[in-house]
Amino acid sequence: MAKRSRTLYFKVLIEQDEDGLYVASVPELPGCYTQGKTLEQVRERIREVIGLVLESDKEIKSEKFRSPGTQTRFFGIEDMHLQYA
């Protein structure tokens, strides 16, 4: 009998650091992060890392990641300007 495939949904945060590298992380999966020189490269790498995390922790493959937005909601990013002495 063939194994059923299912789709899991994760929010991925991608930032560009001061050296121009792209850094990707998955807030819902502790320790799930990577970097790349291009957006394409970092997207490919974070998919690989998510796969490795899922293989190593079978409990993560639960219902909570089967539909979009079930875990963390994204609200936005703000620039904060603070003055201090």
Automatic annotation (TrEMBL):
UniProt xrefs under Pfam families: HicB_lk_antitox
Name used for this protein in its record: HicB-like antitoxin of toxin-antitoxin system domain-containing protein
Source organism superkingdom: Bacteria
Transmembrane regions: none
Domain HicB-like antitoxin of toxin-antitoxin system, residue spans: 10-56
